[in-house]
Design goal:
alpha/beta, six-stranded mixed β-sheet, about 40% helix, binds N-(iminomethyl)-L-glutamic acid, binds fe (iii) ion
């Protein structure tokens, strides 16, 4: 059992946890000053002001966290960090007037990363991903979702999913990694339709990977020019038979009914949602599916942002994630994204913190973490500052302190 004492400010998100991460008000934030936290390796045991620690815990050795804040673990629930190559030329082309979808049609985009990824060795992919994860961990993120999807053939997609599994084993339990299967990310040139690639490659591969317990979640890029509604339903039906959880890249470039289909299938999350209209927002609000916003992608591509405020007001559970990838968001710092996104949508403090902890955890099916509440898993992030508000107030400054090895 461990006792952390004199925590300058402890963010529990107890109020947000009790409201299932929805309809969050500023007063739901749940902060305790000069706090103590007692936990063992499985669960949180006691939380409160240091002066109120019950006598039975007084003999425990304490770790003094004065000058530090503690929050529920920061979770990046959407990344594509296993890839090779560089697409800065496309970034320049976009700044000079080209469009993401036009670049993709002319052979750039996901297909160009796919070429570089196929050419890279296992160890190149593994080592570059490890470096990226260490950097993300250094910001205070302790759980990371990683998608496959930059190979686009049976053999190489299998290789990428296995590399993510290797990363998961390597980093556990310091970083919890979630392995998401996204072979349905783009249609390779040698297939004449998305459905033919889906049925000949993606579904058989998903079945093989599921048999060996390699993947946790299944995702699809449901978008004009990528995968259709029928493809999505077919993949989701097959994934459900395998008891895999579902996610979707939804309504990124158009309002294609992605949010609605996610709610109908009880998906863990619908992600992007830049173009989701009122019907899609309502269906998310009436479901358990988390609305995962990726504002970094809107900024990187210069697209209008999702209706984040309306989603909150309608009662959606909203998460924020980085979408770190080589093409549409080459940026990995979720805390900085949260700092910049909150005044934009806008989000109140409770909504912003729940979006990168509680709701992000739910969007990975990790309902045993995301708040500092008795009985939940002891997963936290520690920052060197005296107020929780300092963490996102200091734009671009990394206040995370990993020296305590909690
Ligand atoms: O989440 N939208 C699809 N996939 C990625 C982009 C992939 C890429 O351009 O490399 C995304 O934005
Ligand atoms: Fe993505």
């Amino acid at each position: 059992m461990k006792h952390l004492s004199n925590i300058s400010e402890l963010l529990t998100l107890d109020g947000a946890y009790n409201k299932d991460g929805r309809n969050l008000l500023p007063e739901d934030i749940s902060l305790i000053e000069n706090a103590s936290l007692i936990y063992d390796e499985n669960e949180i045991i006691w939380i409160g002001p240091s002066q109120d620690v019950p006598p039975e815990y007084k003999s425990l050795e304490t770790l003094d966290l004065s000058g530090h804040c503690l929050t529920p673990e920061i979770v990046d629930s959407h990344t594509h960090l296993v890839f090779a190559g560089n697409r800065s030329a496309e970034y320049s082309m976009r700044l000079n007037g080209a469009d993401y979808q036009e670049i993709a049609k002319s052979g750039g985009g996901i297909l160009s990363t796919s070429k570089a990824t196929k050419e890279a060795s296992d160890s190149e992919l593994l080592e570059s991903a490890k470096e990226r994860i260490e950097k993300i961990y250094s910001y205070g993120v302790g759980s990371v979702e990683i998608k496959s999807g930059y190979a686009l053939n049976y053999e190489d997609e299998m290789r990428c999913s296995k590399i993510i599994k290797e990363l998961k084993d390597h980093f556990s339990p310091r970083v919890n990694i979630y392995n998401t299967f996204l072979a349905a990310h783009a249609v390779p040139k040698d297939f004449d339709s998305s459905t033919s690639y889906l049925t000949k490659v993606c579904i058989p591969l998903m079945q093989d990977l599921a048999k060996d317990n390699i993947i946790d979640i299944v995702d699809i890029f449901h978008e004009t020019g990528y995968f259709t509604l029928e493809d999505t339903k077919l993949l989701f039906d097959e994934a459900t038979k395998l008891k895999l959880k579902l996610k979707i890249h939804a309504d990124e470039f158009g309002d294609n009914g992605g949010a609605t289909i996610a709610s109908e299938f009880d998906a863990l999350s619908a992600d992007h949602l830049l173009c989701t209209g009122n019907d899609g927002i309502k269906s998310l609000a009436n479901s358990k599916t988390v609305a995962t916003l990726l504002p970094g992608t809107g900024w990187f591509l210069g697209k209008p942002q999702a209706k984040g405020r309306l989603m909150q007001d309608e009662g959606c559970r909203v998460a924020l994630a980085s979408d770190f990838n080589p093409g549409s968001c080459h940026f990995d710092n979720l805390l900085q994204i949260a700092s910049m996104a909150a005044p934009m949508y806008p989000l109140n403090m409770t909504e912003m913190w729940a979006a990168i902890t509680l709701n992000a955890s739910s969007s990975l099916g990790a309902n045993d973490q995301g708040a500092i509440v008795k009985g939940l898993a002891p997963r936290f992030s520690v920052f060197k500052c005296s107020k929780v508000s300092d963490i996102t107030y200091s734009w671009g400054k990394n206040l995370c302190d990993r020296s305590f090895n909690l």
